[in-house]
Write a structure and sequence with these properties.
- The structure is a single chain.
- The protein is mainly alpha-helical and 138 residues long.
- It has six helices and two strands.
- The radius of gyration is 15 Å and the shape is globular.
């Protein structure tokens, strides 16, 4: 486990915003909006979900209005999940900008499904993959 645990509500908040953005991408077929989300995924993967734009928004606007966190978590699994989201967004961008468009729709839909699972049920699919990979590697 990393030395700096994060508020477990932060990644779920980020997943809620991500799901909303990805839904708008699917509705509008906006590759440019997906590119912005890909940038947010890249920041979360590189700097940690707590330092992503959504993480900063949570820390500055939402967290002060909440009570202390009931649970914290290791930031590594959500960070890995951001990297997985980045891969799906990159594939989606290829589909939207180079074709075929169905590839963009499918990759965005898969990322939306994963974000929705986290936002609605607190089930982080990328985090679970991270934990499985850690067990296999051990």
């Amino acid at each position: 486990m990393s030395t700096t645990a994060i508020d477990a509500r932060g990644p779920r908040f980020a997943a809620t915003l991500t799901a909303g953005v990805l839904a708008v991408v699917l509705i509008t077929n906006s590759g440019w909006l997906l590119a912005a989300q890909a940038l947010f995924f890249a920041i979360g993967a590189a700097a940690g979900v707590q330092n992503s734009p959504y993480g900063r928004l949570f820390r500055m606007l939402v967290r002060p209005r909440l009570g202390p966190p009931a649970e914290t978590e290791d930031p590594a699994p959500p960070r890995f999940a951001q990297a997985v989201g980045l891969v799906f967004a990159a594939v989606g961008l290829i589909g939207y900008f180079a074709g075929p468009q169905w590839l963009g729709l499918a990759a965005t839909g898969a990322a939306l499904a994963a974000a929705f699972l986290n936002a609605a049920f607190g089930y982080c699919l990328g985090c679970e993959v991270y934990l499985i990979l850690r067990r296999v590697a051990a």
